[in-house]
Specification:
The chain is mainly α. It is built from 18 helices and no strands.
Length: 329
């Protein structure tokens, strides 16, 4: 059996302290490198930001400034690209077109297209988001196809980006994802549909057709979208959905939408909704009735008041009494 001699103990302690000192030194060096990179990036941003802002806000062409930005390369060029893409989200009209043209001149779209086909999920998602910001016609099929990406994260980004190409095909691509296993949140799809429906009559028509889709998730998303678009022309269709759809989630979406787009013609459907066995449907049907003028809902509200309901009675009681007519001399 080998005994630990004083010499061996001293050697082990020395090795241990050397290891600890080396670890601390490596940590300090790593921190210093990160700080150095961060300071360098901040310095490049300080140089790039005013140039990009001047270019974006210029009322007249500035060839010298455009040439400076177009020739930017290396780490500074990367910061210029980031600045250009960040201001792109807030610009419209000629300023936006000028930024897009500069990014095209800098060869940005081809790099993004290559990254959009990467094996890495984060790389694909980031590239598709940027391509959606640029909204170049040549990328429409690429973005629309990415809505079927096996990664729910990438698919969600592609659905958002597809709003840059509003129309029937983009609406269909977004809704198709809802027919799957529910990996993409419905809110992502609805947000894209709202932007498309506001921008394109064809997209709006496709959303309206979705109210009759076999998928309950599609019907609910389309009902929610029409409510957010606040088109009273859809009140009748939403009323029929509330009355006839067998799925509670769809009924709830229709009742909630009618809170925003309800009309007098929807009162019978909303009154039926207050009799639903599902509490949220009853509640939102009543809220939709309360959002309409009292002269068209008085009879319906009186009927609801006559029925004892632990959910609806407190809502009715909290409503201010209608003003009584005053006699005028």
């Amino acid at each position: 059996m080998t005994l630990l001699t004083p010499h061996l103990i001293l050697v082990a302690l020395a090795a241990l302290w050397t290891l600890i000192a080396a670890t601390v030194l490596l940590i300090l060096l790593s921190h210093a490198l990160r700080r150095g990179r961060s300071r360098h990036r901040e310095e490049l941003d300080r140089r790039a930001r005013p140039l990009v802002v001047r270019f974006a806000l210029a009322e007249e062409d500035d060839p010298a400034l455009e040439a400076t930005l177009a020739r930017a390369s290396g780490a500074f060029g990367d910061r210029v690209d980031e600045r250009l893409l960040s201001v792109l989200e807030t610009l419209r009209g000629d300023s936006r077109e000028r930024i897009v043209a500069l990014l095209v001149d800098r060869g940005h779209p081809p790099r993004l297209r290559r990254r959009a086909r990467s094996r890495r999920t984060t790389v694909r998602a980031a590239a598709l988001r940027r391509l959606g910001q640029l909204a170049l016609p040549t990328d429409e099929d690429l973005i629309r196809g990415a809505t079927a990406d096996p990664s729910p994260v990438v698919a969600a980004i592609a659905i958002r980006a597809a709003a840059s190409y509003p129309g029937r095909a983009s609406v269909a691509a977004a809704l198709e994802r809802l027919r799957g296993r529910g990996e993409v949140p419905a809110l992502v799809v609805v947000t894209s549909l709202i932007a498309q429906g506001a921008a394109s009559a064809d997209a709006l028509a496709a959303i309206r057709e979705g109210l009759a889709d076999p998928s309950s998730r599609v019907r609910a998303a389309c009902a929610q979208t029409l409510g957010e678009l606040t088109s009273t022309a859809d009140a009748a269709a939403l009323g029929r959905l509330l009355r006839r759809d067998p799925t509670p989630g769809v009924q709830l979406a229709a009742a909630t939408a009618l809170e925003r787009v309800g009309r007098a013609s929807a009162v019978p459907a909303l009154l039926d909704g207050t009799r639903s066995p599902w509490g949220p449907v009853r509640t939102h049907s009543l809220l939709a009735l309360l959002a309409l003028p009292r002269e068209v809902t008085a009879a319906a509200l009186a009927e609801v008041a006559r029925r004892p309901d632990p959910l609806l009675t407190p809502l009715l009681a909290a409503q201010p009494a209608p003003p009584s007519p005053e006699a005028h001399p």
